[in-house]
Amino acid sequence: MKLSTKGRYAVMALCDLAGHPEDRPIALADIAERQEISLSYLEQLFAKLRRGGLVRSVRGPGGGYLLAHAPNETRISDIILAVDEPIRATRCTPGQPFGCRGNQSRCQTHDLWEELGNQIYLYLSSVTVADVISRRVLGTSGLGAKDQSRGGGDAANPSRAAG
User: Which residue, of 35, 45, 119, 125, has the greatest Cβ tally within 10 A?
Assistant: First the structure.
């Protein structure tokens, strides 16, 4: 499953916003520059994020955007869903009683991909913006680098590390 730039950029932008003082609105131009995202693209994303209740706008001089909720209350899945990014791994339309194949049947691996989509959603629902900006989300690549620096062996392949 590939997450589009819409979802990734929305998460990046909200994490950037959360990393600044909560009492001062942040201009989208500043986020665009720091995150190297097109300002016009951010404007479109923030319109959706505002409608989704994740950010609020402040107009006038010194205006910009603020998080609508505390970073520990803002789940990554909520951000992705607010910008209309589906979290699914099947090619079938959710909720349909039939599959995506020409004869309306489901492919043999449908349940595998559907469960993968469910697991991705559960994971993204368990991670908050606060987790990301506090660097409490550590992927296996980070563990592997740490283990190898301590002489811990091949973290990417535990069977080789043990041998």
Answer: 45
Number of separate domains in the chain: 1
9: left (phi over 0), alpha (psi -120 to 50) or beta: alpha
Model confidence pTM above 0.85:
no
Domain presence at residue 119: no
Which pair of tokens denotes residue 64? 């910009």
Spell out the per-residue pLDDT of the chain, length 163, in tens.
Answer: 557 889 999 999 999 999 987 678 999 999 999 999 999 999 999 999 999 999 999 998 889 999 999 999 999 999 999 997 776 666 666 556 666 666 667 777 777 877 888 888 899 999 999 999 998 887 655 554 444 444 444 444 444 444 4
| Block residue for tokens 């909520």 | 78
